[in-house]
Amino acid sequence: MKKQLLFSLCITLAIMGFAQTQPAQPATGYGGLAAAYTSVTTFNCDDGATGFMLYIPASLHADSLPLVVFDHGFGEWNPLRYARWIDHMVKRGNIVVFPRYQKSEYTTLSSSFTPNAVTGILRAIDTIKNHPTWTQPELDKVFYVGHSYGGLISANLATQYASYKIPKPKAILMACPGYGSYPGGQLSSYSAMDSSIYVLDIFERNDSVVDSTFALQVFNQTTSVPYAHKNLVIHFPDNTGTRPITSTHGEASCIDSAYDNGDRGVVMAQASYAYTDATDFYCYWKLFDALEDCSLNGNGCTTAFGDTYSQKYMGLWSNGQPIVPLEVRPASAVTSINNIIENTEVKIHPNPSSDGVFFFELKVNSEKCNVEVYNMLGEKIYSAFSIFNSPFSINIKNQPSGIYLYRLVSEQGKFVGSGKLVIQ
Known about the structure:
globular; about 425 residues; alpha/beta; 9-stranded mixed β-sheet; Rossmann fold; Immunoglobulin-like; single chain
């Protein structure tokens, strides 16, 4: 019996040894627990397609605070879906307006989504102004944040704020922006976006709902916005732990029943799957916190932008292994060479190469592997899929001399290696 118990214990410990867990929310810093306020006051003005929810820090009382407009995804007008992120924003010192913009999933035309959101925003601002004892919004410190269709709406608001007669944003953050099966709400072009607006454009590697089409459209069309404060960010899966890091359309969702306003629809039935995890803490929450600080105070800019270690870092699994980092466009010729994960699994020769041909040797070759190569503008110039054997070669001899960046990921989403390639 003792031998059986000992055997069972050994098996249990062995399983625990492989059952890595995600990191908890950091105590301080961007995306962290530390907050200036301890509670939130909610005002429910949800009376239809132009309705809104309003969230204001309850204590300590501030005379005025920045305003964040949070644009929800298609059919997700119950703030329950984004509750913990909203709670995080408010307790860090923001007023949050959550415009509804839809009466139901299928009776409100997509072309009216943005105008409805505009009406809700203006109603919310007027509501606060009509209560002068409330904390007032600082209308020169406004941010538009949106998930899915809300990301599209946020891009519309930032591009046409003047014609909508709404406050000009300091910055916008788009999380998995797109229209999926319901086009008609997007602008034909986002080239008119003001050059002073800070832009973070984030999409998920395995998003099968809207993919990257709209995210790339906005990133490529906003030519007036400099790369110094505009990045395209890609979040990847990581299957290391017992609850893996996934990379699907709903990663920005994070429920809290305290924010449930009772509204239900077809899409909201999926809310129970909206976990709060490392992707929230180290991607969406961290990047918005840094974006706000950067655009208002000049702090945190190397976390919000620049393809830096602090921008890409996603925390550590319980065994100390880094979670697969974010990817950023445009990639930095300086910081991208110093990878978050040491490149011990890959050997390349020759490097530099005189003819653009490189040979790769992998220590682990039992998995199919995908390789992508990017230039310094963040443009993909080469890709190959399902590489079975090591060594293998790639040929980019059609490219000019310079530095290029490669990334290797297994078909299961596990990071294998990344680094630089040099053509002389």
